[in-house]
Amino acid sequence: MEKSTVQKFRLGVFVILGTALLVLASYLIGNRQNMFGQNFTIETVFKNVNGLQKGNNVRYAGINVGTVRDIDMVNDTLIRVLMLVQEKMQSHIKTDAIATIGSDGLVGSMIVNIVPGNGIGPLVQDGGRITSYSRIGAKDMMSTLNVTNENAALLTADLLKVTTSLRQGKGTLGRLLNDTTMARNLEQTIYHLRRASGEADIMFRELNSLAKGMKGRESIANVLLTDTLSGRRVKEILVNLEASSKNMTEVTRELDTLVKGLSESSGAFNYLTQDTTLVKRLSVTMKNIEEGTAKFNENMEALKHNFLTRGYFKKLEREERKAAKNEDNSP
Known about the structure:
By secondary structure, the chain is of the alpha/beta class.
């Protein structure tokens, strides 16, 4: 009888403790799943949930604020995720927040991370939707890494070929690395280029100074460049010079033709300029004429003093004085 009572007591204690543990576990699980608090729902759409399941945690700025309530396929490319979030967080989460899927540690379960936006959007409402960002899955990352490794292997092989060619002195770079003469020539070329660049810089500075001087209002260059009246005058001068040049060319051509004709013809001019005997005769004739003229003057002077003709010459002188006097008295 006593043994049966002890067994019943133990059974009762075990049932009470089991019930208490069950209630406590239910409370903890329910509290973890936000089943007993005041909550509101937010949804978002992903292209790939990367193994996300119902009941996984939802974090906002690194703080657990809710759980994943439901996951539905919208179509063949979109997946809707419904999140149950504590109501007290409704005053913090705005519509410009972004939802991403991550992992709780390296090998932990998947979670939904809500990242705050710029803070300029309105507060999210119950049943509202926020923007999502789908990260690359591990499988896609491994595929990308595989392609990257293959490309790196090909690149390494090509680099090995290039390095071998350079060491053997093949190609332009190989010759530059191994040929000291070419290296010195290249150094001299660079020196000359640097020197030419310096001289060009000096020339440009001088041209700049010259251009600044040309901008002066009283400078000839500025007048020619800006004064339209002076420009027209210069243009007219150039046209007249061109016309004068053409006329001078024509005159020169005609003179050349005339001189050529005189030199090649058999006329009197060519005869006078080429026949030296005739020139001598003309010189003697001119000398005789001068001598005859002098003697004629002497004879005329002698006639003036001769008593037979002296009266005639005096009469001529009186007539000349009378004619000159009449000319002076005429109005």
